[in-house]
Amino acid sequence: MILAALALAAAVVPPGPLDFTAQTLRTEPKERRAYLHGSVQISRGDFVVLCDDAVADFAQEKPARAKLGKGKKVQKSSMVAPGLLGSEVRHFTLDGHVRMQRGKRIAEADHGELDNEAQTLVLTGNGKEDPVLRDGPETLTGERILFHLDSEDVNVVRPRLVLRRSVPDAGDEKTPSPTRVEASKLFLDRSEQLARFTDEVVVRRGDMTVRGPLMDARYDKSGEVTRLLLSGGVEMRQGDRRAVAQKADYDPRAKELILTGQPRLFDGGDALAGERITVNLDSHEVRVDRAHGLLRPRGPTAGGVR
Amino acid sequence: MSEASLPPEGPADLVLQEVAFARLADGQISSRGTAEQLTYRRSAGRLLASQAALRLPPRPGSGLAPLGLLYLSAPRVEAETTARRGEGSQGVRLDSERGDRARTERVTYDGSRELVTSDTALAAQGPGYRVRSRGFVARADGSEVQLVGGVAGRISGGGR
To answer: Is the complex ipTM more than 0.90?
Structure first.
């Protein structure tokens, strides 16, 4: 759900004024800063950030034409520079219990950087706890989560995702363990409707581990992940079994992993190649289409069979 | 400046009606003001003004300079000239040449500490912002302003 919600459901946050509340506000015009302290809330549209403390950095002064009330005269050529609060906030530094909410999406972190010029929010942890992104039951964590406020894209550094579809319901013994995804980077691309994990992608489910340099997660309209497509050279390990291929297609519903692109299977002394290798993750059954290779029967006198 | 802290009222040394005044600094007029009535008690160094208004050019380079000319008014102003303290009350208004407006019930000025404070609700707005708080503490030169007791407002956020 989280991938689809991130990539589809979120509305673009329009640029414009920011509303805020806090216990105190201290302005220091020379520093061009304002310090918000205590139960800070900053919002624009459906985008809301809460935190303990925030520092607002204001843009440098630009000359602006004087504006007067009724009955007050001023020369037309008079220009006055805007004061601190009249300037645009360029950047907010957010600290302590940072919580971002945008629609159904909630993110929590220890630290945040809200860049009004770039229209981004970057959430980071404190070294002990990473920022967390939640949408309904789904949870995504990562070292660094970057939200693009003017689009619906999200970048995550070292993401870790648990696919809820793969998590067993209470008392469901048939689904022994959830599917977990880790990578160096994650990019949630709205236009392509996919979540792209790159660099050191690892998918784990039970005793199975699949590794590859690139993985695209596809999802259906309900937001459930339907396919994990790994490419660029894939390696699967399950106990003593090992398989390699150019591509791997994992269907969480069918609990099947399909290897294509010169797939090869190594199991004990067996070495098989074929057009396609299908691994059933629950039964551990392996099917090799158009197989050829070496089967080494178990036993002290057994020889190889080709 | 509460009533309890003030010395007993003696007869006024001077009562002026429909007053216009100017303050000189270094031979220059640093500010101008008007008042409906001004009462001065010399021994106590106490000044009481009604419907007072002050036109105040901020010091160049100060935190208030960007606001341009300041127009400060209050229905009642009490001041102790010797202690360099004063209080505006019954609705204090600050307007600036730039278009800023601030309103609060009561403001106290402490000249020895160069502090301006208020413990009453403040509402201020100007080009690109508006803000409310339950009080404030500020340096008189505007180099630091702290809104306290709960703050809410809107500021320009920019964006691409």
So the answer is: no
